[in-house]
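Quick check before the chapter quiz. The format below is the same one you will see on the exam, so make sure you can read both the input and the output lines.
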Amino acid sequence: MNLLKAFYNIGVYPNQDAAEIKMVRTINLLAANTIVCIILATIYSYFFQNNESSLYTLLSLPLFASGICLNAKRKILMAITILFLSSSFLLAIYSLRTGEDAYTHMLFVLNIMGLSLLYRKEKAKLYFNISLYFTIACILFVLISYKMHWFLDFIDSSLIAKEQRELNFYILLVFALIYSFVIVTSYRLQYKQMQDSIEEQTVLLAEVNHRVKNNLAIIISLLNMQKNATNNSETKNALQDVHDRIMSMALVHQKMYQNKNKTSIELGNFIADLVVEIRNSLDLKENIMYETMIDSVRLDVSIAIPIGLILNELITNSIKHAFHEVEKPNISITLTKKDGLIELVMKDNGMGTTLENLNQNTGIGMSLIQSLVDQIEGKYSFEVINGVSFKLIFPYK
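Here is the expected output.
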């Protein structure tokens, strides 16, 4: 048992990448299975069926053995390539020797299937292409040989058709079992690795969101302390603006930390909570009504944060400047998704202004909105009808 375990771990070293370890072990299994099957098939065919053609299969043994040696020297991709070149070469010789092509071409197909499973890394493209094109070249060479009647003298005439088909079938069965084993083993290992990686990333993302949220909460508390410590109204207003902007970002990370999906948030819940946070942070004299009609949309954090900051600027601006002498102040927010685009509209029924004033506004708020809209590759416009309406259209990602 210890000997088998040692052979299974040939080429495995401490601090090696997990995916690489799985590939190394898969190569060892593939090579070992192939060598054992070739030896057993040759013994059976030569001594029990008097089939001298089986000796040709022994030509590939040094190549499969060299694959294990390369694996041990950490030349994994070269080892895989040697294994597949050996398989293709062996199949080509066997096809020409027996004069039967139907079953052996099935083996070529299995060979190509194995290729697609063992080559995973970006740097493996060259090795993958060499193995794939060599296999295809072997297939074409065998087909052309049959059509052009080449190597007729090489065909083993001692085998009758029934024995040829039976032998081909047995070899096909052995190869199918080997490749099936490799495919299933590789799939299970890769799937488990993928699941472990996803779980690890989920935990790390949750921890990152939690720390970011806590750090932003500390900054918000410091801003509140500084705001309460000053008597200057302009300073207080400036600190309040910074407070609200940071709060909108902290809310995104809080939502991501609370949700199972750590990379995106549900926009409807986020906007509802954002409105509540803004109302709680401002000293409001008016009882403002809020209306929201928002489609079910999940957005990535890279989009959600700019949207939150834009809405924060718009809502805060409306609360501070739009509702003087308005009896029933109202803010409506609608968000719809259609044809790969998202349309966000925020409207108030305040005193309004003019488009000229909006376009000439060079304050921090407007500059921030323009920058955020560019960041999400969107377009925006203002409209003044019974208040101010802001429309933003951006691609859904």
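If your answer matched, good. The chain has a mean pLDDT of 77.
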